[in-house]
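Re-running the complex after MR caught last week's input typo. The corrected sequence lines follow. Everything else is unchanged.
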Amino acid sequence: MTAANVAAAPGAPASAERARRITRRRMTGLIGHAYVWLVLIVFVLPFLTLLVYSVSGPGGTYAVQNFQYVLGSFGDNLWWSFRVSGLTLLINVLVALPAAYAIVRYPFPGKRLLFSALTLPLYVPGAVIGISLVLVYNFSYHLTTSVWGLVLAMAVGTFPLMLTPIVVALRDLPVSFEEAAACLGATRWQTYWRVVFPLIGPGVSAGLMLTFIIVFNEYLVTLFVHPPSITTGPLRVFNLVRTAGLAPTTAALAVTMQLISFAAVLVFFRVFGTRYLKGTYLI
Amino acid sequence: MSTVRLSRVSKRYGTTVAVHELDLDVADGELVTLLGPSGCGKTTTLRMLAGLIEPSAGRVWFDDEDVTYVPPRTRNIGFVFQTPALFPHLSVARNIAFGLSVKGAKRGAIDERVAEMLALVGLAGYGERMPSQLSGGQQQRVALARVLATDPRVLLFDEPLSALDRNLRDTLKYSILELQRRTGKTAIYVTHDQSEAFAISDRIVVMNAGRAEQIGTQTEIYLRPETPFVAEFIGATNALAGDVVAIDGTGEEARARVDVGGLQIRSRFRPGLSVGDRVAVYLRPENLVVVQEGQDRRFENVVEGEIERVIFEGPTAQLRVGVAGRELRADVSGGERLTFIEGRGRVRLGFNEVTLIPTPTPVPVPA
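Corrected-run output:
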């Protein structure tokens, strides 16, 4: 006879005790679940409200026409957002790849200072960046009228988001891979593209994702430095809300931007996520 | 095939000297081990041979070619790292193909070579696996196949087995030796593990503080250490300090008498010693024999002491015997070791093999 059997032998009092224990456990579980759901609602509710509002029609009806309006009238704004994001990503990745490699692999004087300076925009408020860039751009009339002024502003503001994940990925990558490649006869260029780049891929993609989401949704710095001819999606939302109040069509534009950002995150986690969650870049 | 020569090679980092004027000649097809404690400069030396770091002074030669400043890429070497360093995003076959593919070899030739190498290291059929699907030992064999695929002039090993568990180390070291013999490659092998070095080397370079203390075969290094460091680093030993008090006889028969704190020890004369010299005296524990009654005459030296401790190690038992105020370790094996398990009391230790090494300064005697 086991100890458990002995304890259960007296019958009724023991099972009542067990029932009480189960009830208490179930209560704790319920409270836990309620807490999780409450938090989720607090996070998700604003977005859900916006979603519902975006499909509301006149007279309390619901319609998807608002979204057709997004592609029609606001299409140009979304297209500008994509173009600015794309160009910013291109500039950032082209500068960050060699910069990160130099910062991690080579000793040079003032390295820490340089890295701190490059990550400075993370701690500077957008309004400050905006004002300073307006001052700087005033010396070059050309920049205030072309898309490049806006793209450069975005690149400066988001560069640390691109650089830091690549630096971290490179730091985690043992030098012996590069040494092994060199000993096997690979040139520096071959070593970089065949070994280093694929192995820091998750870091690069993280940088791309962060940069895209920030630039695609950025409005404050854009407000300062955008040329009159260019209005991005977020800026259009801001302008419309300010001038015409909150129309369902505007909400639809906002929802669309939100969905595009979600999609970017989803794609990122589908392609690279598991490697991140495993805590290693090495597959 | 290649010979390798280091001539007065030094490496300094600021004021620290990692390697100091190292000379080494490695014959074609020879396997030479650099053996020493961590920080002795053995890995630095290997990396200079690979071209991964440049010497501060001196020259490195492969055959008649001065490769001192030739980058690793064009040196045509095979470097096996402590970690296998297989490219994790490439299959086993593409890892092995890497060296050929960066040199622009034809697809067909590469496939053929990869298959040949996989068979050579006993991993035929593993080509499509990813490195993460292999065990540590298999990964290191792929690393070996990867360097052999490029047909290097020289093989360089940087503690390739230190990350593996003991059983695997024992089998893999013989695999490495066998592959080196079969391919006839000149090889330089870095390790801090004496048994590894003794098992596979043609010659061993014992390194300490950036210098080669002694270069020789296993027996030369073990039986005739030339410096106190070699005598103490290789194997176990009883280190004592004494003074030469007399030299008896001449030629082959010459004997030196050494006073070790009141104890008189007689030894084969070592050329160059003279009366009054300070010497380090080394007695290997396996050469100290427990002397039974009436057997004294077999030994040139017999000392008596009290057993202080017995450490049973399985095949042997260590007797720690207090002799004239110092502890001597004597290893006994066979049936005899069992008689000492509960051992206490007095024993007489006899020995003939004594190593004398002149020392300018007194050698610290371990307590």
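None of the earlier attempt is carried over here. The two ends of chain B are 50 Å apart (CA to CA). The first helix of chain B runs from residue 42 to 50.
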